[in-house]
Amino acid sequence: MLVKNINSAYFLSNMGNCELCGKEGNLKKVSIEGVDMEACMGCAKFGKPIAPPKQFMPRERPRHFKRPQGPEYRIVDDFSKLLRTKREKMGLTQEQIARMVAERESIIQKMESGNFKPSITMARKLGKILNITFVEERKEDEKIELKQTAGGVTIGDLIKKR
Fold first, then answer.
1. Is residue 12 part of a domain?
2. Residue 35: beta bridge partners?
3. How far apart are the C-alpha atoms of 80 and 71, rounded to whole Å?
4. Are residues 37 and 78 in the same domain?
């Protein structure tokens, strides 16, 4: 069996021997009674032709979306203390606050203890409920500066060390 395309046995050369009758000639890949074989044009009529596999055409990947260069925001430093004191002043329980922002009570507990820092969106929701601002605009001098190393940016460059 001579193959034009090494990666695929479906594209056979014009000359070869039929697997049914042994006749030399043009061969076609067919399925006869569930068996895939190469048959001459005369024997191929007894089976169903097998379509060659579809060629993989890699799609062009979409370009990465660049965020608009607007102001950057951050959560205030004393977020957990402010959250607890404001909640207690309003006479609300952690469970009630959790229901209002559609979160679990354990998340509110972790936020108040300082073990969990919420997303900007979550901090804004809590701020609306408690009438306090937890989110502020990041100042220019606070913006993250990346250290330039010979190998480029690493994860260690992005981690804020305590």
1. yes
2. 32
3. 24
4. no
User: In residues, how long is the chain?
Assistant: 162
Q: Domain range for residue 34?
A: 1-52
pTM for the structure as a whole: 0.47
User: Do residues 71 and 137 make contact, with C-beta atoms less than 8 angstroms apart?
Assistant: yes
Question: DSSP of 98-158, one letter per residue?
Answer: HHHHT--HHHHHHHHHTS-PPPHHHHHHHHHHHT---EEEPPGGGS--PPP-TT---HHHH
Report if residue 42 sits inside a domain.
yes
Tokens of 11: 């594209």
Distance CA 10, CA 5 (A): 8
- Tell me whether residue 40 is in a domain: yes
Residue 152 lies in a domain: no
What CATH number should be reported for the domain holding residue 120? 1.10.260.40
* Amino acid sitting at position 125: K
What confidence tens digit (pLDDT) does each residue in 35-55 have? Answer: 888 888 889 888 898 877 777
* 146 token code pair: 């990346």
Structure tokens at 50: 């097998």
User: What gap in Å lies between CA 22 and CA 49, rounded to an integer?
Assistant: 19
Structure tokens at 59: 């799609």
